[in-house]
Amino acid sequence: MTERSLRPLTEEEYLALEEASPVRHELVGGIPYAMAGASLDHNLIVTNLVALLKPLARAQGCRVYSETARLKVSEDTFYYPDVMVVCGPKAHPLYETAPCLVVEVLSPGTEAQDRREKLSHYLRLPSLQAYLLLEGARPGGVLYRKTPSGFREERLEELLILPCPEGTLKLEEIYEGVA
């Protein structure tokens, strides 16, 4: 039996680990967790969404990132959202800190974390206007929209009206080609 010491990593240690590792890790409370691969449908949803968001984001001076871009949500927690939109200057060469939109595509292995842990962290970001959870198996999901009194949960219908980047997307276009 092999013993391994486990202690929280600093930001610098985590970023060095990520640079040297062939596997991506999210950092939660200073502890790195290897990320699993995604299904083809998951990847297709992300790709479709990035393609739909890109023109809206560009027109509004924002950037769209997918799956391999880090988001720092606290001193000891970094995630790799499936999609995020950021407006304004880049925070750091290796990560962003102020998205206006974060999207996670749900899968059986990540759904609980996306609905609880990540929801809690993301909704605390001052820049965030919306957190979108998309179903991975069928068209649908939930949008958490920022309002003056906090975030409001909205079930997705045929159209998705985004506050940032401002625009409307058709759910059928997000899920185009998904089995």
From TrEMBL:
Entries under Pfam families matching the protein: Uma2
Domain spans labelled Putative restriction endonuclease: 12-147
GO molecular function: endonuclease activity
Coiled-coil stretches: none
InterPro entries documented for this protein: Nuclease_put_TT1808, Restrct_endonuc-II-like, Uma2
Acetylation found in the keyword field: no
Keyword annotations: Endonuclease, Hydrolase, Nuclease
Lineage top rank: taxon: Bacteria
Protein name per Swiss-Prot or TrEMBL: Uma2 family endonuclease
Organism: Thermus antranikianii
Record lineage: Bacteria, Thermotogati, Deinococcota, Deinococci, Thermales
